[in-house]
Amino acid sequence: MTPEEIKKREAMVDSMCICKNCPSYSAYGKEDDFISYCLPSRGKSKNLAEHGCICGTCPIYMKKNYVTAYYCTRDIEMKQKTAIVEAAWQGHSVWDHLKGKK
Ligand code: SF4
Ligand code: SF4
């Protein structure tokens, strides 16, 4: 994907992303650096904490058949799915596993 294509996709997802209506986003109290945290070109926020996630009602979530949540704190779907498998294999919690990852 070219840089122009990435920018175009980010703009499309930004226009449909509902993160700004979410309690986790609101709790931050100001504009975050970006939204659409589920995009591989974006990923986790440096600022948000978990106070509820509404990704499950987002059109992008449904279109992409996502199953995880909290992309702003736990990273993109593929990384979360990998962490679930790795954590199960190593016998510790998924959340501890995710916290140890960049
Ligand atoms: S799934 Fe979540 S992070 Fe992705 S666009 Fe929708 S609301 Fe934003
Ligand atoms: S990824 Fe989920 S928890 Fe984070 S701001 Fe978006 S809707 Fe809220």
Whole-number mean pLDDT? 93
Q: Structural class of the secondary elements? A: mainly alpha
Q: What is the terminal-to-terminal distance? A: 23 Å
Q: Number of DSSP helices?
A: 6
Number of individual domains: 1
CA radius of gyration is: 14 Å
- Sheet with most strands: none
Report what the structure shows:
With 102 residues, this protein is an all-alpha fold. The protein has one domain. 48% of the residues lie in helices and 0% in strands. The protein is built from 6 helices and no strands. It has helices at 3-16, 23-28, 59-63, 71-74, 77-90, 94-99. The longest helix has 14 residues, at 3-16. The mean pLDDT is 93. It binds iron/sulfur cluster (2 copies).
Strand and helix map with partners:
Layout: H1 3-16, H2 23-28, H3 59-63, H4 71-74, H5 77-90, H6 94-99
The chain binds iron/sulfur cluster (2 copies).
What descriptive keywords fit this protein?
102 residues, mainly alpha, 6 helices, 0% strand, binds iron/sulfur cluster
Summed up:
The protein is mostly helical and 102 residues long.
